[in-house]
Amino acid sequence: MAPSSLDRTDRKILAILQADGRIATVDLADQVGLSPTATTERVKRLTREGFITGYGARLDPTRLDRSFLVFVEVLLDKTTPDVFDRFAGAVRRTRDVIECHMVAGGFDYLLKVRVADMAAYRRFLGEALWSVPGVRETRTYTVMEEVKAEPGLPV
């Protein structure tokens, strides 16, 4: 099913579930104006078709000693498949990297990293990032204030 083939009710279900993945089916059905059975079938279809990929809780990074947030530009020494694969594998094994995106432009990857503090970030750089063969240069941007951090998508 293409996104344009989602009807208004599908989009409403997705928006509600995105805001509260633990909502009871009866309450979800009430909010979208369908029976619980019809609502359950729609949620199953949306999951089967890949619109819903999972459920989870949003956690407070401060409470988990991960309040230090940085973005890191990474420039590789070569842009070959083996260098890309080696870097991607290293990033996937690193718990501190929350997001990693290959980008077009003046550098190759943009990382979102969460650690406890500057000392932990320095350790991350030395042990996890600069030790990866092929990393030529990094630039770090320390987040001073999270102005907006919406986990959901516009539906």
TrEMBL record:
SMART domains: HTH_ASNC
Keyword Repeat attributed: no
CDD domains xrefs: HTH_ARSR (cd00090)
Keyword DNA-binding applies: yes
Domain HTH asnC-type: from-to ranges: 6-67
Pfam families named among the record's database cross-references: AsnC_trans_reg, HTH_24
Keywords of this entry: Activator, DNA-binding, Transcription, Transcription regulation
Signal sequence interval, chain numbering: none
Matching InterPro entries: ArsR-like_HTH (IPR011991), AsnC-type_HTH_dom (IPR000485), Dimeric_a/b-barrel (IPR011008), Tscrpt_reg_AsnC-like (IPR019888), Tscrpt_reg_AsnC/Lrp_C (IPR019887), Tscrpt_reg_HTH_AsnC-type_CS (IPR019885), WH-like_DNA-bd_sf (IPR036388), WH_DNA-bd_sf (IPR036390)
This protein's name: Lrp/AsnC family leucine-responsive transcriptional regulator
Organism: Labrys wisconsinensis
